[in-house]
Design a protein that fits this description.
With about 70 residues, the chain is an all-alpha fold. Helices cover about 85% and strands about 0% of the residues. Helix 1 packs antiparallel against helix 2. The two termini are about 30 Å apart.
């Protein structure tokens, strides 16, 4: 029986995107000081970059499956 190969980079990318998104959303809802809000705003570009990368990965996979 052959085990499926997992692409660890993709798994870590998806995990990071979902985890960081959850942390940012939770951080905005639970922020009590301006420092916490500033911290979330500073991390927001990282989350945006991760989601852009995830979307690009989906597009690459869709192109490969269409061809």
């Amino acid at each position: 029986m052959k085990l499926p190969r997992f692409n660890l980079n993709k798994i870590l990318l998806y995990y990071s995107a979902f985890l960081m998104t959850a942390l940012i959303i939770g951080g905005f809802f639970r922020a009590k000081t301006t420092g916490e809000i500033i911290s979330n705003v500073l991390l927001l570009p990282v989350v945006i970059f991760l989601w852009i990368t995830v979307i690009q990965q989906f597009r690459v996979v869709r192109k490969k499956t269409k061809n």
